[in-house]
Design goal:
Immunoglobulin-like, 28% helix, four-stranded antiparallel beta sheet, alpha+beta
Length: 255
């Protein structure tokens, strides 16, 4: 059987994938256990574990024998097999007398001895003001390339948020003050009553674990209001079209 392709995790999650992986290990150890730093007893244990799981899986998937009982038996056999194989796999993996090629032949994950540096973020966040409450704005963020997804770009762990509060909006991020770093949506930003009637303009950028930052987002802004619903106008960067909202339920933001 050819070497098993490694994945994360290296023990496959699917029932059939685990069966194929376990079969490969059992057959390799059965051929020459000492080559992999294992004993004949280890090889016999792995083969027995494989045969038990394989039989249980076959019974659980065959149309004539598939039922709640055989599926439950398969799940129990799989849990037992994993509990048996994981400790042995870790022992074989940590054996310095076995080559990485032979470990890979067993389907074991080989740790990468060199780490690839995380690059500076190449994209900018896309900010939106999701809701407005008395003295508070609720913001959401996403990556500009995947605005419908929650995930941040690869290597990015945080969003840096900045805000400028003044009588009119700004398009210059240098006017804004640092607010903090965030990892999850939504962001609640609260104002003081003395800021009522002013406009808050938000900017953001991605940041990696090592402190590398990406390009600035486009600004989004909204008037600060206290009390009941008031007419609000969204600040859109040059070339955009302002949107007017008549209350919290109607507020829609374009970024």
């Amino acid at each position: 059987m050819p070497p098993i392709e490694q994945s994360e995790p290296y023990i496959p999650r699917t029932d059939l994938g685990f069966k194929v992986w376990l079969q490969n290990m059992a057959e390799q150890l059965d051929l020459d256990a000492s080559r992999f730093g294992a004993t004949e007893a280890d090889a016999a244990l792995v083969m027995s574990t494989y045969l038990g799981y394989s039989n249980a899986l076959d019974a659980a998937v065959m149309p004539g024998s598939r039922n709640a009982t055989t599926v439950a038996a398969k799940d129990a056999q799989k849990a037992s097999a994993l509990a048996t194989i994981r400790p042995l796999a870790m022992i074989l993996k940590s054996n310095q007398g076995v080559s990485n090629e032979d470990k890979a032949l067993l389907g074991l994950h080989i740790d990468d001895g060199t780490r690839t540096p995380v690059a500076q973020p190449a994209t900018a966040p896309m900010l939106s003001i999701q809701a407005m409450f008395s003295g508070e704005h609720q913001l959401r963020f996403a990556d500009e390339l995947t605005p419908d997804l929650k995930k941040k770009p690869a290597g990015v762990i945080q969003l840096e948020l900045y805000v400028y509060v003044g009588p009119t909006p700004t398009t210059n991020y240098e006017d804004a003050d640092f607010v903090g770093v965030y990892t999850k949506n939504p962001i609640q930003y609260t104002f003081s009553p003395t800021q009522a009637g002013l406009t808050a303009t938000y900017f953001a950028r991605w940041r990696t674990r090592t402190g590398l930052v990406g390009p600035w987002s486009l600004p989004v802004g909204l008037m600060i209001a206290f009390g009941g619903p008031v007419e609000q106008q969204l600040s859109i960067p040059t070339g955009g079209t302002p949107l007017t909202a008549g209350g919290e339920d109607e507020l829609k933001i374009a970024a």
